[in-house]
Amino acid sequence: MADKIYRVNMTDLSTSIEDVPADWMGHGGRGLTSTIVAAEVEPTCHPLGKNNKLVIAPGLLSGTTAANSGRISFGAKSPLTGTIKEANSGGTAAQMLAKLGCKAIIIEGMPEGDGWYNLHFTADGITINEETELIGKGNFAVVDAVAARLGDKHGIISIGQAGEMKMLAANLSIKDPDSHLRSGGRGGLGAVMGTKHIKFIAIDPTEAKVEIADKDAFLAANRVFTKALVDNPISQALGQYGTNVLVNIVNEAGGLPTRNFTSGQFDGHEEISGETMYDIIVEREGKPKHNCHKGCVIQCSQIYNDINKGYKTSGFEYESIWAMGADCCVDNLDQIAEADQLMDDIGIDTIETSVAMGVAMEGGVLEFGDGAEVCRILKDEVAAGSPLGRIIGCGAGSVGRAFGVTRVPVVKNQAIPAYDPRAIKGIGITYATSTQGADHTMGYTIATNLLGVGGSLDPLSKEGQVELSRNLQIATAAIDSTGMCLFIAFAALDDATCLPALVDMLNARFGIGLTADDVTNLGMSILKTEHEFNLAAGFTNKDDRLPEFFDEEPIAPHNVVWDISGEEIDTFWNF
Amino acid sequence: MDITIKLFAYFRDGRFKEVASRFFDEGATPQEVITSLGIKMDDVGVIMVNHRHADPAYCLQQDDVLAVFPKIGGG
Ligand code: SF4
Q: How many domains are there within chain A?
């Protein structure tokens, strides 16, 4: 059965199933969400209004046995940035939707009344059902209630209180195989689902399999691909320490933004490091290795237990730990884990919210280092929707405006994550030029600037950074379309067998003949589609800039400022 | 000359986290220091001296801080 587009109209509460237009056929994941948003959403629309759409698409290889292919993409016009947005995540939803023959779900319109709904995706299509019990509840209550109603094998995409209240940092939560949560974190797409009054989407488990045009070729290519991932030493370190292994190396390089971006090193780095986290996890009988979906062979996730050896949080990522840790000067992993768990439950982006807390600390709302007060604010203010909670829940830019703080680390109103662009210049180009506001995953120059992957390029020099960021942003747009986790890139950059095997899998899945150049061209065309949407929404090259404090305030230990000019940044788009 | 050495991730196992001031002869290189610790150069991902990336053959100076990382990544 050919894959279909599932359309949900929340204005008249109708659903339909459509053939996939020929133009969309070669797309999946991010390429498909961005193509659909660009085709169907008016760029100047209000992102929280009825004319925005939420598009959900599994990757091109999702649902197959390809290793690490279970990522799901969410697209819309972002309420946080006003740009086009794609957020992707692990969890079980991508694989289930792909097996049920879903190319994409398009959710449009807006119900008139105050009523709330849930969507139920079955082999026969989508039903829209009234929802009352779970309104005002957190994501974990949704997971428990769906398990009680339908069984615990269902896929779930849900929003917490933040999404219901249309906070601009609200995320989408996706259930993982152990009924914990992964997040489609950035850009406030949870608020878009909130405007549609959809609390959650439940997806039926299925025994169906995705069709593979050439099964033998697929198996052979997957074997090579999986071996490249498993043999890669970085994959192995990710399994042991998780992404949080980065705290110490970024700190050592002087690029760990600390105390609301006023230093590049944090005195408490050891306390929050991957090494310390690993020791705590082992001591408390958690799991250092864990996967966010079946078929991941890298397993960067983990189960972090509390002091009584009870479950505390999982998917405890470097960027979340940096944001609550170094940026807010909290040097206590248990407090950071508590905040992480609270943010997952409320359904709010850990990076945006924690950077917002750092700005609030500078604005005198709370003290730097006060992790207990961070947790109290999350529970009593953000989850409850108090005025302070809503200001923080709308992100770092919102806090800066409300409290008169000018050192606000955002690009296109989205918080800058865990790598200081003054000390790691390539990532500054990515923050400035990304089609989606500051986001390290759009073109992860840290690989080459700091980690020696894909060559090496001095992080403190201006030379070659635009080109590095461009190449990585193009490659990333293509990878984000396949359903692959981005961490395959470490093997792809350094193991010559990895990328050809990925292309071979795409060809075997669909019975086509893509070359590596075709994949690069796909990446380029996705970036251009996204960029054109932003231009039509009113953005100009002047929006591709970092906040001025980066030009003016040198950061220790290297005492460097951001020194790449606007003209140089603009050459990014010369392709 | 005295060199401070920092080790990271599994390089710490059975060794140390940080040693302030270990003595080496003038002209010692990161490679010599690393192999003297029983770490294989093939396992080394990143070498930094005084917070800057450095070559294995870099000529270390008195009071340099040498940081040695295995191949790691994240994001
Ligand atoms: S490496 Fe991590 S993020 Fe990627 S698929 Fe595996 S668990 Fe998920």
A: 1
Query: Which of A446, A453, A458 is the closest to B53 by Cβ?
Result: A458
pLDDT tens per residue across span A346-386: 999 999 999 999 999 999 999 999 999 999 999 999 999 99
Residue B55, in any domain of the structure: yes
Q: Does any domain span residue B60?
A: yes
Residue A506 domain flag:
no
* Mean pLDDT for the stretch of residues B13-20: 91
| Residue B75 domain flag | no
Interface of A with B in 311-370 (CB under 8 A): 318
Chain position carrying tokens 């591709």: A544
A537 CA distance to ligand 1 centroid (A)? 33
Is residue A550 helix, strand or coil?
Answer: helix
Whether residue A236 lies inside any domain: the answer is no
Q: What gap in Å lies between CA B17 and CA A376, rounded to an integer?
A: 35
Whether residue A222 contacts residue A202, with contact meaning beta carbons closer than 8 Å, is answered with no
- Paired tokens of A498: 């990895």
For residue A291, the CA-to-ligand 1 centroid distance in Å is 6
Residues forming beta bridges with residue B44, ordered by sequence position = B70
CATH number, residue B47 = 3.10.20.30
On whether residue A176 sits in a domain, the answer given is yes
pTM for the structure as a whole: 0.97
- Asked if this assembly's ipTM is beyond 0.90, the reply is yes
A487 and B52: CB-CB below 8 Å?
no
| Torsional sign, CA B46, B51, B53, B58 | negative
C-beta atoms of A558 and B51 within 8 A: yes
Q: Return the pLDDT at A44.
A: 98
- Angle at A26 (CA atoms; ends A529, A513), nearest 5 degrees: 125
Tokens of A64: 């197959």
Q: Which residues contact A535 (CB under 8 A, 6 or more apart)?
A: none
Alpha-carbon gap, residue A142 to A150, rounded angstroms: 12
Are the C-beta atoms of residues A207 and A231 closer than 8 Å to each other? Answer: no
CATH number where A33 lies: 3.60.9.10
Domain that holds residue B7: 2-70
Number of domains in chain B: 1
